[in-house]
C-alpha cells in the first residue's frame, strides 16, 4: 500500500485524493482551509508536516509556485528517506526549476508532473500527466499515477513537464480568447453563435486545421492548401467587420501576424507559414 500525502484539496486535489484512496493508497490530506479537506473519506492532517510524516509520496496540487514552496519546506523536512515529491501543480518554467532546487537542497527525489485536464477528468481519473524526473521514480509512482490518469507521458529530466504544460496552455488560452472574440463578432453581426458550432461540426474544422498545420509548422514544410496572402485578407475582413479593432485584440493581432509573414516573403506559401512571423529569426 503506497502512502500518499496530498497537499491541496481544491478543485483538482480533492477528487485526486478520492481516487487515490479508492485505488487502495493510504491517503492523508492537508489544505489551508481545513473545511475543504473534510468529507473525502481520508485522514485530514493539521499541518503539511503532519501529512508528510511517513509518506512514500508527497503530492502537491496548489495554485502556484509560491503556494507550493510555502508548504513544501516543512513537509520535505519530515519525509522519510526514499520518498518522492510528486509536484503536479502548474507552476511554470521558473517555478519548476525553483522547486527542483528546493528538493535538491533537501535531498528529496523530485518529479515534475503537471496535468492536462480540469475538474471532470480529475474526478474520473482520466487526466493526462506530463511526467518528468528520474527514471527510477517511475515504477514506485505507478500506483499513484494509474489512479489519476488515463495517460502518463514521460518527457525526460525534471522540468520538462512544466515546459510542455506552458506550451499547451499557451495554445489553449490563445484559442479560447480567439473563440471568445469570434462569438462576440458573431453577435455583433447578428449571427447566432450556435450557427458557428453547427457549420464547424462543434469545432471539428478547427481541430482538422490544427492537425494539418501543426506538423507543417514543426517541419517547416508547407504544401499549399490555402495561400497565406488570402488568409491575411480573410483575417482583415473579420477585423473590418468588427468595427472596433481595438476591442477584438486577438483577431487584430492575428491579422498583423499574417501581414508580417507576408512582408517576410511568405505570402504565396501555405498559410501555415505564418509560423515565420512568430520566429525569432
General description of the model:
The chain is an alpha/beta fold and 281 residues long. It folds into 2 domains: 3-156, 3-Layer(aba) Sandwich (Rossmann fold); 164-278, N-(1-d-carboxylethyl)-l-norvaline Dehydrogenase, domain 2, CATH 1.10.1040. It has 12 helices and 9 strands. The protein has helices at 13-22, 48-52, 65-78, 92-106, 119-124, 138-148, 160-188, 193-199, 204-219, 228-242, 249-266, 275-278, and strands at residues 3-7, 26-30, 43-44, 57-60, 84-87, 109-112, 115-116, 127-131, 149-154. The strands form 2 sheets. The chain has a 6-stranded parallel sheet, sandwiched between helices. The protein is elongated. It starts with a strand and ends with a helix. The mean pLDDT is 93.
Key structural traits:
2 domains; N-(1-d-carboxylethyl)-l-norvaline Dehydrogenase, domain 2; 53% helix; single chain; alpha/beta; Rossmann fold; 281 residues
Global morphology: elongated
When the domains are counted, the total is: 2
**How many separate helices?**
12
Distance between the termini: 53 Å
List the SSEs and their pairings.
Elements: E1 3-7, H1 13-22, E2 26-30, E3 43-44, H2 48-52, E4 57-60, H3 65-78, E5 84-87, H4 92-106, E6 109-112, E7 115-116, H5 119-124, E8 127-131, H6 138-148, E9 149-154, H7 160-188, H8 193-199, H9 204-219, H10 228-242, H11 249-266, H12 275-278
Parallel strand pairs: 1-2, 1-4, 2-3, 4-5, 5-6, 8-9
Antiparallel strand pairs: 7-8
Précis, in short:
By secondary structure, this protein is an alpha/beta fold. The protein is 53% helix and 13% strand. The protein folds into two domains: 3-156, Rossmann fold (3-Layer(aba) Sandwich), CATH 3.40.50; 164-278, N-(1-d-carboxylethyl)-l-norvaline Dehydrogenase, domain 2 (Orthogonal Bundle), CATH 1.10.1040.10.
Amino acid at each position: 500500500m503506497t502512502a500518499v500525502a496530498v497537499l491541496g484539496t481544491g478543485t483538482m486535489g480533492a477528487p485526486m485524493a478520492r481516487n487515490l484512496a479508492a485505488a487502495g493508497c493510504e491517503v492523508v490530506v492537508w489544505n489551508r482551509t481545513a473545511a475543504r479537506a473534510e468529507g473525502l473519506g481520508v485522514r485530514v492532517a493539521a499541518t503539511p508536516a503532519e501529512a508528510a510524516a511517513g509518506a512514500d509520496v508527497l503530492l502537491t496540487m496548489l495554485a502556484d509556485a509560491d503556494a507550493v514552496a510555502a508548504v513544501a519546506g516543512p513537509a520535505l523536512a519530515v519525509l522519510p528517506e526514499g520518498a518522492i515529491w510528486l509536484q503536479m501543480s502548474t507552476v511554470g518554467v521558473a517555478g519548476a526549476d525553483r522547486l527542483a532546487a528546493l528538493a535538491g537542497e533537501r535531498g528529496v527525489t523530485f518529479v515534475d508532473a503537471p496535468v492536462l485536464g480540469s475538474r471532470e477528468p480529475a474526478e474520473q481519473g482520466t487526466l493526462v500527466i506530463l511526467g518528468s524526473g528520474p527514471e527510477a521514480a517511475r515504477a514506485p509512482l505507478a500506483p499513484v499515477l494509474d489512479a489519476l490518469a488515463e495517460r502518463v507521458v514521460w518527457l525526460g529530466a525534471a522540468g520538462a513537464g512544466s515546459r510542455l504544460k506552458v506550451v499547451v496552455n499557451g495554445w489553449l488560452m490563445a484559442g479560447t480568447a480567439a473563440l471568445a472574440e469570434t462569438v462576440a463578432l458573431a453577435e455583433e453581426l447578428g449571427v447566432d453563435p450556435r450557427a458557428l458550432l453547427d457549420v464547424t461540426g462543434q469545432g471539428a474544422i478547427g481541430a482538422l486545421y490544427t492537425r494539418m498545420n501543426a506538423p507543417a509548422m514543426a517541419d517547416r514544410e508547407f504544401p499549399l492548401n490555402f495561400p497565406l496572402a488570402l488568409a491575411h485578407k480573410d483575417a482583415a475582413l473579420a477585423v473590418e467587420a468588427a468595427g472596433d479593432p481595438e476591442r477584438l485584440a486577438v483577431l487584430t493581432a492575428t491579422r498583423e501576424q499574417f501581414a508580417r509573414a507576408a512582408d517576410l516573403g511568405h505570402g504565396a506559401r501555405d498559410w501555415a507559414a505564418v509560423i515565420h512571423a512568430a520566429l525569432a529569426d
